[in-house]
Amino acid sequence: MSASIGYFVTGTDTEIGKTLVTCTLLHALAQAGVRAAGMKPVAAGAELRDGAWHNEDVDLLVAAAPIVLPTDLTTPYLLRDAAAPHIAAAQEGVNIDLARIMDCYARVAAAADAVVVEGVGGFRVPLSRTHDTADLAQQLGLPVVLVVGMRLGCINHALLTADAIAARGLTLAGWVANVVDPGMRYGVDNVVALTERLDAPMLGTIPRLPSADPVLAAPHLDFSSLPGWPRPVSH
């Protein structure tokens, strides 16, 4: 039996809140009583702590997920250097194999009722000489949640990413505006422009928070329009 709910979280760039949105999705699924697992198949940037390699984003997903699975399944490629994945992998003599990621996903999906997969960087980040994260998203075939980092240039980045998602035959299931530049001028106008141009529901706007905490972000987001989202049980 495989997971009945799945989403792929991507973004307009790196460091724009993909992990926060992924963790908030996992938190919301947990609140709905769904046994959800998080995956970050490729993570670049790790440090050795207590005899094991840790990545901050991976650790946050583990903390947010209702069920915890072995890291070698949820993050089959944990790279040490905080660089572009194909460069970090080459430095370690590692080949990022999509078939291995897909096998790990199948095993995670068999153990959970929902899987939320976080990409790395933006939607077209190279993973090897022949594949990028768009290829991974296409093979997974999951509905895509786009995180738009609200800063100057975000409209262009968001529309180009939406085009790239559509070009892979994937469904843009929803998008999130995440305020990464609190000093951004005309932020509301930018959100309006994106709402008018993106053919997907807006799931909410995350303001600048005191910490990247999914409990703090959750009240600002509404995932109920996502495909397969669990409906409240009526009594």
What would you say this structure looks like, in words?
Helices cover 36% and strands 20% of the residues. The protein is α/β, with parallel strands linked by helices and 235 residues long. The strands form three sheets. The chain has a six-stranded parallel beta sheet with strand order 2-7-1-8-9-10, sandwiched between helices. The chain is globular and about 45 Å long. The mean pLDDT is 95.
What secondary-structure arrangement, pairings included, does this model have?
Elements: E1 5-11, H1 18-31, E2 36-39, E3 42-44, E4 47-49, E5 52-54, H2 56-64, H3 71-74, E6 77-79, H4 85-91, H5 98-111, E7 114-118, H6 133-140, E8 144-150, H7 154-167, E9 172-179, H8 187-197, E10 202-206, H9 214-217
Parallel strand pairs: 1-7, 1-8, 2-7, 3-6, 8-9, 9-10
Antiparallel strand pairs: 4-5
Helix pairs in contact: 1-2, 5-6, 7-8
Concise overview:
The chain is an alpha/beta fold and 235 residues long.
* CATH fold label: Rossmann fold
CATH superfamily: P-loop containing nucleotide triphosphate hydrolases
Q: Please describe the biggest sheet, giving its number of strands, its sense, and whether it closes into a barrel.
A: 6 strands, parallel
Q: What Rg do the Cα atoms give?
A: 17 Å
What are the secondary-structure elements, in order, as H or E?
EHEEEEHHEHHEHEHEHEH
Coarse structural class: alpha/beta
The CATH class label is: Alpha Beta
The average pLDDT value, as a whole number, equals: 95
The CATH level-2 architecture is identified as 3-Layer(aba) Sandwich
Q: How much helix is in the residues?
A: 25-40%
Provide the domain count: 1
The gross shape turns out to be globular
| Low-pLDDT windows of residues | none
Number of strands: 10
Give the N-to-C terminal Cα separation.
28 Å
- Proportion in β-strands: 15-25%
**How do the strands line up in the largest sheet?**
2-7-1-8-9-10
Summed up, the helix count is 9
